[in-house]
Fold this protein.
Amino acid sequence: MSKKYVLAVPNFSEGQRSDVVNAVVDAVKQVESVKVVAVEPEHNFNRTVLTFIVDPKHCEEAMLKMAEAVYKDVNMEVQKGDHPRIGALDTFPVFPLQNVTIEETQELAEKLGVSLFEHFKVPIYFSGLNARTEYKKSNINIRRGQYEGLKALLEDKNHPDYGTRKPDLSVDGKLDAKMGACTVTADYEGLVAYNVFVESEDVSIAKEIAKLVKSKEHGWLSIKSVGFKDEGKPGTAVSMNVYNCAETPLVMLCDWVNKEAQLRGTKVIGTELVGPLHLKYVEAAAKEFGYEFNGRDYDELVKVLEENMGLIDFDAAQIIEYHLQPVTP
């Protein structure tokens, strides 16, 4: 029988203390069937995104070991960072990856949320496909006000928004002072983080293009984007979170940004994929340049994208399916 895998992409509120980050990752690695795809600590955000593949039957154990390590060293009463968050283990989303249906993934997310609450008494929000209300489908809504604002709101059960904002599972309807809360969800797949660099050092151009690409009139509502100067990288960046890479393929977006850049007297000089993504999106990009991936030569696949898209700092290990290859003895 073919192996089953889900993809887990939890986010925890520590990105500055490497010893804590390493302890959390090591705890997850101890679990059978876990394959770590990426560990992405971000100092200014003071959070880390951990991406790993795991057999669904081992996912609960991996989550509990991770939570134990996080709750040991992360205290929301003193944690500070630039990224919105409501808890020490802030989110735990799972996605179907191999031989697992979305319905099975939703059931798994339900089990994970209940287990996390039962073991640690941490308040739980269910979001995405597991959301109890329309409002809670969006993690942006759940995080509104962040830990500090949400904690204060839930202290007052007479607050007009209390019913809307209270956790789905909790001891007393409040956030835990130290742990905060955790959002658990299942969905079809996560976002692709994609930067397109334009030659001009005038960041206002990148910001203008970023505003257009996410607009209903000129671009796509499935994209969130900003323009900024990424120190150490060429030019300025149009940075996009692409939530539907099938609808908005990488090459098409690059061409679109280049067209808008040329209208403003500049051009695209490179691209960057940040973090993990699915093989099908990289493969589709390579096909635009006449390359058919043979299922084995990941290095050649990356080379095609480097030469034709100006892709920088990309490693084949960022491709999620790369980690599903049979281990050669």
